[in-house]
Amino acid sequence: MKTPIYLDNHATTPVDPRVLDAMLPYFQEKFGNAASRNHSFGWEAEKAVEDARGKIAALIGGQPKEIVFTSGATESDNLAIKGVAEMYAEKGNHIITAVTEHKAVLDTCKRLEKRGCRVTYLPVQPDGLIDLNRLREAITPQTILISVMYANNEIGVVQPIAEIGRIAREKGVLFHSDAVQAVGKIPVDVNAGNLDLVSISGHKIYGPKGVGALWVRRRNPRVQLTAQMDGGGHERGMRSGTLNVPGIVGLGEACAICQKEMTGEAARLSELRDRLKRKLETELDEVYVNGSMEHRLPGSLNMSFAFVEGESLLMGINDVAVSSGSACTSATLEPSYVLKALGIGDDLAHTSIRFGIGRFNTAEEIDYVGNRVVDVVRKLRALSPLYEMAKEGVDLKKVEWVTE
Amino acid sequence: MYSEKVLDHYSNPRNVGSLDKRDRTVGTGMVGAPECGDVMKLQVKVNEETGVIEDAKFKTFGCGSAIASSSLATEWLKGKTLDEALTIRNTDIVNELSLPPVKIHCSVLAEDAIRAAIEDYRKKQAQPQPLEAARP
């Protein structure tokens, strides 16, 4: 076993060697521009792009022509939300999203608010899921778009997509989902989910960085978008710019591998995640899982270790790459807005760690990480005045803290 | 990201522990709040005759820099008189540990903890001694 151990697969994933092999020819021998119609270099590139389109569409149950290539999911989210807001401005100006969305969605919505749109940010329940009744109540005749992520990047909870889609369809509202964390990890079916727009990223599924896609429904209904990038009219006019052929080939191959291996891989990752959770819960007191365990991505575990500050915990397990819900390193000192939205107090949010288990992690690594975390949490609790007070029976919520 | 000295204090914190906070010769300072991600408890045990700090202990909930700042503070406090202890400035801690700007608040907290502990000790000393303790 080699250290450091990478357990931050929600942030990014390494490129699968099979994906890299598929990409390499498109940097040199097959370097053509997919838009060149007059020679074999162009045709070769175009064929590779069309193959990739087919693989991506197949993974989500869509049609190849419905795939629009982008530079990544941030661009896909921007294109979907701004593109719909502009195209359907005459129909209405109201968008519904959720407070736990990725910043690519939230900040896009905030920008649109400045341009006159009205946005409803749905709260989430303590398990991280939105309340479908509140969604229903939020819809008005002015509502043109619902944008709710498939699975959350911080806590891994999977939203009730099929139910949201049914409501959206029933009310005649378009439904966009940032499905970056879900595609390739759990079954995503655009028709079963009544989805209209889906954002996909390459580097979260063992493909390259800098490439993504937006799936845009072409039938029932035919979704139209106002392009956000002007130029040569590529991608049916929705996204101009020379196609990133090697990246697209990589994204396609990454999707094909996910489709082939998803069932077995999801079971394996769930088992590793549960093994880690069991270890931590058996050997430590006062640890809490953040977000629903039932509606959760296979490789995702977010836990709070009460009375231990997240950054000091990360420092203690410096041969393990994970991410903390505490943002002590940033100037704001604000803990994660996602954890806060679940109603988790700032005190527990500061103690949270996100474990993202992926394709290349082994059981041996998970056991090693489990042991390291247990050791460091014990050591830091011996240092923690809060743990001492809690053990003495002091109610920390009632203490008057001295702050500046 | 962390200096050698911060890493050293984090890995081998000095003077971790608790003193009896009811003891007249012990001053306790607790500053920060769990919601802010930092709580420091710093205690000094003072020789009543000489006014010299004979022992110092800490416990800290916080990032590595907060742990290092309080660990360093206890090292510096031992052997100092109370007045000398009050001359310790957060900037001394910043310099010693090479703290980056985002971690300066950790050193401020440590200075606050020192002051709070000494204030607590002096408050205790100003109160009349219980009868039993006053007997020769």
Structure at a glance:
Chain A has helices at 17-23, 40-60, 73-87, 103-114, 132-138, 161-171, 245-283, 310-316, 337-341, 346-349, 363-383, 385-391, and strands at residues 5-6, 67-70, 94-98, 118-122, 143-147, 174-178, 197-201, 212-216, 287-289, 300-305, 320-321, 323-324, 352-356.
Structural class of chain B: alpha+beta
DSSP strand content of chain A: 5-15%
Shape of chain A: globular
- Report on the biggest sheet of chain B: 3 strands, antiparallel
User: Percentage of helical residues of chain B?
Assistant: 40-55%
CATH level 1 class label of chain B: Alpha Beta
Please give the alpha-carbon distance between the first and last residues of chain A.
46 Å
Question: What's the helix count of chain B?
Answer: 6
How are strands sequenced across the largest beta sheet of chain A?
2-8-7-6-5-3-4
Number of DSSP helices of chain A? 12
The CATH topology of chain B is Sufe protein. Chain: A
Strand content of chain B: 15-25%
Number of E-state strands of chain B? 3
Largest sheet of chain A: 7 strands, mixed
- Alpha-carbon distance between the termini of chain B? 56 Å
Question: Care to count the β-strands of chain A?
Answer: 13
**What is the average per-residue confidence, as pLDDT of chain B, rounded to a whole number?**
93
* Strand neighbour order, sheet with most strands of chain B: 1-2-3
